[in-house]
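Chapter review: from sequence to fold.
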Amino acid sequence: MTQKPPTKANDPNHEMHEAMADQAERGEFEPTGTPLRGEDAKQYLRELMGKPGAKRLGQPAQGRSPAWQVRLPNEIADQAAAFALASGLSKSDLMREAMAEYLATHTTTA
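The token string follows.
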């Protein structure tokens, strides 16, 4: 699936991004963080992308899986992304593991 580039219509942060672009064009934008180069950049990218073709949750592939799309508050999304990166998990893996753990520890009478 290819993601469409952000536009004014589909980017809730369009105005902020435009303002940042304007600042950068005027030479007023100060990047944060430390630039990564060489092996550090390669390692960061490997961690960010995960292992190609890695099996998920120790299960063999069994065809297509149902996909759920959820909306998260920004704070939870940021925490989850940071946790996934620090744990070496993809966000999808984190969500699958979190759902499995939640269902294993919560019961319902339905």
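Two observations follow directly from the output. The mean pLDDT is 80. DSSP finds four helices and no strands in the chain.
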